[in-house]
Amino acid sequence: MGLFKPSVLTQYLRFFQVNRVFRWSCFVLIAVVILHTLTITFVSAFICSPVAYFWDRLIPNGKCLNMTVFWLTASGIHTGTDIVIFMLPFPIIWKLHISRKQRLQLMLVFGHGFFLVIVSVLRLPTVWEFSKTKDPTYDHPLMSAWTIIEANTVVLCTSLPVLKLLVYVIFLKLRTTVASTKASYSLDFE
């Protein structure tokens, strides 16, 4: 997830080369997401001492950080950045000098990111349950499933602005093919 969000933000930078505040917002968010990802990766790897205590609670003198606080804080920041990244382009889109219809179409394309926010929020209860577990290796699959759904949703949402042209070309070719097929099979009754 830590690489997808900067990818979305760099797409924003490419699409909306508007003003310094927007550009700086993107750069700050990229830095926050990268630092968050590195922190989560490092802390997740060393959350318990010794590291093996994470999956084997029978090791004597083992201890872990408060996993509930860690996972909920990490997920809160994660969901918060999702919301900010989702909402970032809308003021820019609304101020574009294009027709209202085109503006709404653009908002719809970028609005697909709201689905990602929903998935991110739906993932939070699994994080809560996982944070209270006594056996993380056994209770991890549900949270992993939601994380995989979220990652796939990010790929889909990231690809939508670029896929718009592809879908348009496919429908144009399909319409042309159907029209030419109808013309070749039409009968002249005169």
From TrEMBL:
Q: How does it sit in the membrane?
A: Multi-pass membrane protein
Q: Under the cellular component aspect of Gene Ontology, which terms does the record hold?
A: membrane
Q: Which domain of life is it from?
A: Eukaryota
Q: Does the keyword section mention Methyltransferase?
A: no
Q: Which InterPro entries match?
A: Rhodopsin_dom_fungi (IPR049326), SAT4-like (IPR052337)
Pfam families found in the cross-reference section? Fung_rhodopsin (PF20684)
Keywords assigned: Membrane, Transmembrane, Transmembrane helix
- Where is it localised? Membrane
Q: Which residues cross the membrane?
A: 21-47, 67-94, 106-125, 145-172
Q: Could you tell me which residue ranges the Rhodopsin domain spans? A: 2-167
Instruction: Give the residues annotated as coiled coil.
Output: none
Principal cellular location given in the protein's record: membrane
Q: Which family does it belong to?
A: Belongs to the SAT4 family.
Q: Which PANTHER family match?
A: INTEGRAL MEMBRANE PROTEIN (PTHR33048:SF55), PTH11-LIKE INTEGRAL MEMBRANE PROTEIN (AFU_ORTHOLOGUE AFUA_5G11245) (PTHR33048)
Task: Output this protein's name.
Answer: Rhodopsin domain-containing protein
Q: Which organism is it from?
A: Lepidopterella palustris CBS 459.81
